[in-house]
Design goal:
about 75% helix, single chain, mainly alpha, about 290 residues, globular
């Protein structure tokens, strides 16, 4: 490996050691900054972040899916930042529980894809995938697990049926089904949502990674219906609002500006991302605020 590759891996390990064994507040801040930074990187410069980890050239579809992954990470970072301020122990407990579970699923998927899609062919992962992405996923999971096992009070979730909670439940059902289809039938769903007949390992891996993150977000929408404070529910809405807003912007940009999205696939993507966006716009801006209990 080149010197810069060793420096990237060393930076990840040093950042982990400096934050994972510190206070929960420090780790959560590092988690949020890391998610937002990498999300912004995938959104703005996906070619760079993908190129050094793979063989061959990066095509337009790689960039398109990479930017969707970036938007997902930014939305998750916003939600984590807002919920990290909560005084309700149930919110913090569920945040670490779902984040740790999501990291475990993501790690299993990344290991599987690393074994299936590694080699010298076009669109296959190289050793930098192991020493950067896979290493980062391991450290992310271990850090969240360290702080999860230190939690002693998981609080209490309540069950309600307000309009805000119904917005959150609708998001869960919509994305649970849609992302399940994307994870299990990646290539089949991909042929509907993107203008491409064949997919390489990089297409599949990045799409599945995004699917895991969105699936965890949808589960968080479900548990957020039990949060006792209305502002915590609004924080969950805001993260998804940012995420879907970034999706719709990318889709419309591909249809109108770059012409990379054919009208049919662009329309399908606009509907599947636009409906959740409308749902959360209604929940966050139209729903009346209620006083915290």
């Amino acid at each position: 490996m080149e010197v810069v590759a060793y420096l990237r891996s060393a930076a990840l390990v040093l950042a982990f050691v400096a934050t994972a064994f510190s206070s929960r507040r420090v780790w959560m801040l590092a988690d949020q900054v890391g998610l937002f930074t990498f999300g912004l990187g995938f959104y703005l410069i996906p070619g760079y972040l993908l190129q050094f980890q793979t063989n061959g050239t990066i095509d337009g579809l790689h960039l398109f899916i990479g930017r969707f992954l970036g938007g997902t990470m930014i939305g998750q970072a916003v939600m984590s930042y807002r919920l990290g301020k909560s005084k309700d122990p149930a919110v913090i407990g569920m945040l670490f529980t779902l984040r740790t579970a999501g990291c475990m699923v993501l790690l299993i998927m990344m290991i599987t894809n690393g074994l299936l899609f590694s080699g010298e062919q076009q669109g296959q992962w190289n050793e930098q995938y192991v020493w950067f992405s896979l290493l980062g996923a391991v450290l992310w999971m271990v850090g969240n697990l360290i702080h999860l096992i230190q939690i002693r009070d998981f609080g209490v979730l309540t069950v309600g049926c307000t309009r805000m909670e119904n917005h959150l439940r609708l998001d869960f059902f919509w994305h649970f089904v849609l992302i399940f289809l994307h994870i299990v039938f990646t290539e089949e769903m991909g042929s509907i949502t993107v203008p491409r007949n064949t997919f390489d390992g990089l297409h599949v891996s990045v799409n599945q990674t995004m699917g895991v993150l969105v699936l965890i977000g949808s589960l968080f929408s479900l548990v957020a219906t039990g949060f006792r404070q209305p502002e915590d529910k609004r924080s969950a809405c805001l993260g998804s609002l940012v995420m879907h807003g970034s999706y719709v912007f990318l889709i419309l940009w591909g249809i109108v500006i770059t012409k990379e999205q054919p009208f049919q696939t662009g329309l399908f993507n606009t509907v599947t991302s636009g409906l959740p966006l409308i749902n959360f716009l209604s929940a966050y801006f139209i729903e009346p605020k209620t006083k915290e209990s």
